[in-house]
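Can you give me the bound-state structure? Components:
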Amino acid sequence: MNLLEVKNLRKNYGKLEVLKGIDITVNEGEVVSVIGPSGSGKSTFLRCAAMLEKIDGGSISYNGEYAVKTTEPGYPEYAPADELKKIKSYFSMVFQNFNLFPHYTVLKNITDAPVCVLKQNREDAEKNAFKLLETVGLSGKDKSYPCELSGGQQQRVAIARALAMNPKMIYFDEPTSALDPEITAGVLKILKQLANEKKTMLIVTHEIAFARNISDRVIFMDGGHIIEEGTPEQVIDNPQNERTRQFLKTLNTAD
Amino acid sequence: MIRWKNIFKGEKWILFLLLISFIFSFGSVSVSADSDEVFTVGFDAEFPPYGYKDENGEYVGFDLDLAEEVCRRNGWKLVKQPIDWDSKDSELNSGSISCIWNGFTLNGRESLYTWSYPYIDNSQVIIVKNDSDIIKKEDLAGCIVVVQADSSALAAFTGDDASEENRELAASFSQLQQVSDYNNAFMNLETGMVDAVCMDIGVAGYQLEERKGKFRILDDTVSTEQYAIGFKKGNTELRDLVQESLNEMSVDGTFKEIAEKWDLSDALCIEKSIQDGIYPGDSDNESKSKYSMEYILSELSKGLAATLSIFFLTLLFSIPLGLLVTFVRRSRIGLFRWIARIYISIMRGTPLMLQLLVVFFGPYYVFGLRMPASYRFWAVIIGFSLNYAAYFAEIFRAGIESIPKGQYEAGAILGYTNGQFFRKIVLPQMVKRVLPPVTNEIVTLVKDTSLAFVLSYMEIFTIAKQVSAGCASIMPLFVAGIFYYIFNFIIAIIMENIEKKLNYYR
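Here's the bound-state model for the whole set.
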């Protein structure tokens, strides 16, 4: 069964059509990267899939359970609140700007939602948090506040926070875009590590080399459509579509 | 003769609003200095028939007519300057007015001013509601009696020269309440907040005519007193000039004519005074204050508890109320949002002083409710809390809206409920963010507690004004100012420390 199945997803901002019918499936254990120029709709797609934005058409289901479906055109119907709550627990998300809670320590940032939302025992949550901090290479930073950490460190805390919720799948929304180039490596290393552990991930990124390296599948989006989809070798090394080629070429010249 | 009674024929609430607008009508006189010599008369604009604002918005009255005539005879330009009665000494001493000419009682104040000859002999009378059981002075035992702050009625009861009989009478009252003006006194009487008002006979006659049928005067009077013009202590030069004109006016009959116009002929005593030829108080050479610093401090400390309770109770009620208004203001339901907006708009758009008056007198004038005497205090607290809640609501809203949207998204992804998220994530950060503007509001509140004087609630500033008027010195006001400063200084230190405590994150 597909972990995520998106069909004919449409999203408008007023009269502007941002997503014009997107179909994506993600299987368990798969790493999928979404690339494309700015304004192609890739971040909007991710936010719709994570239900931060209401959609205007199509359907989204996790594990075969519909979060939203459209039977009557133009009127997408979301699942009732309790079902939606359960569905939302299947995934977590890492943001471009980390979005840590500044008044909480690193430890509290990681443990608060598990204790508060998942009703984990505080001790267990903390034990798990220390393990996750080790995973992201931040042992000993548990008492720090986010403002005392570098951007890369904050992003690694955000990854630990997402992992602490024990999701089936994690969304990454341009996780290195707000970071200085020299510290993106640390964050990418952790993502690679998670990929090796067969975590299901959907990553919106500008790091083409990284996408090729880590992904099982790459999706190229432009103008609210999926233009090309396939293995990294197919999409990045041998793009069939002219727009994909153009996009990759501009990136190469920019480098 | 005096024709503003038709104003009062409207509905009760119109009367109420009018009265309130009168209270805010001070200080609207423009001064033009065409003529070289300007003679500025300071008067209480709510003291008919001696000086008041008529239905055309003009300041008129017996004393102002006299002043007009004196100016005409001396070639001076008359400026009619309405003053806050409690501030009359500061006005006089600073030279912003030339004299106090306003049914000004000299008895008990002989040594504080340089006086003209007394020209009116007046008595204090007691006014009760028509349906009251009070017939004689003795019936006032156990009653709440109201007088104007620093009025001759107050002096008659508690002044240094008060007669033994009057002191005993005052002691029999359950309370001797002071208000800032007579409109306020009559509102208090009509709403049943007090049992009787004590005031000058001339004023009483006028007021009762205007408020036909609602009140009556007791046959017993309280004391006899005289009116004269008060000049700054030592300014005999101006006094002599004015007195000379008054003497002329007395001889040629102008004085009497003016008195007849205002129906005050019976009380006139100018001829006798001229015959006697004695200026009141001229025998004392210096005006030494009988009020020591010790006295001032002990009086002000009586208001300390009142000021502190206004302050703390207002904070206690207005902060949670403000938070509630914020929620309503941010509600998903449009109607609620509009209600909150209108509430905030009214509270911020009208004077706090007016709001206090509405809260205090509104229940009676709008709903006919008689409130208990303790309502005076609660009206102050309610008025302040409602007002400050509006300001706090907007500060809190700004604080909540300054939390980055990304945090809300993180909260949504992590599965927090709205309540959990607000309590755990938004509220603690909001507190830190709103601390500087909240400190501003708290500091303002300390000073605003002084506005309770409009309801004659005996907090520090009300007392300071009264003591100041009583001893013709600004010292009590100055001491009150020091108190407010120290209070705010302490608050600033406390708030700074709280800010530091919250500085563990950015």
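A couple of observations. The interface with chain A takes residues 404, 406-407, 409-410, 412-416, 420, 424-425, 428-429, 432, 504-506 of chain B (CB under 8 Å). Chain B has 18 helices and 13 strands.
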